């Protein structure tokens, strides 16, 4: 499973970085970075919450 961001929709609100900081972060220019696109089993719940909480629906979880 992979975490992805639609950069056209993302406003870099940082909600995802707060919920899944091992996977998402905001860089120095306040752009969202997917630090680890391959979601590890221990991060699935947090990433799923981050995707659901994204105010712009810019995050996705895809099967490889």
TrEMBL record:
GO MF annotations for this entry? Answer: 3 iron, 4 sulfur cluster binding; electron transfer activity; iron ion binding
One Pfam family of this chain: Fer4_13
Query: Which InterPro entries does its entry note?
Result: 3Fe4S_ferredoxin (IPR001080), Fe-S_cluster_ET (IPR051269)
The prosthetic group or cofactor this protein requires is: [3Fe-4S] cluster
Under the heading SUPFAM superfamilies, the entry gives:
4Fe-4S ferredoxins
Q: Which UniProt keywords apply?
A: 3Fe-4S, Electron transport, Iron, Iron-sulfur, Metal-binding, Transport
Q: Describe its function.
A: Ferredoxins are iron-sulfur proteins that transfer electrons in a wide variety of metabolic reactions.
Sorted alphabetically, which PANTHER family does this protein's record hold?
Answer: FERREDOXIN
Q: What is this protein called?
A: Ferredoxin
- Name the lineage: Bacteria, Bacillati, Actinomycetota, Actinomycetes, Pseudonocardiales
State the gene name recorded for this protein.
fer
């Amino acid at each position: 499973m992979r975490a992805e961001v639609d950069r056209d929709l993302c406003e870099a609100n940082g909600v995802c970085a707060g919920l899944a900081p091992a996977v998402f972060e905001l860089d120095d220019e306040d752009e969202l970075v997917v630090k680890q696109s391959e979601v590890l089993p221990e991060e699935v719940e947090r990433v799923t919450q981050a995707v659901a909480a994204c105010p712009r629906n810019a995050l996705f979880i895809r099967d490889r």
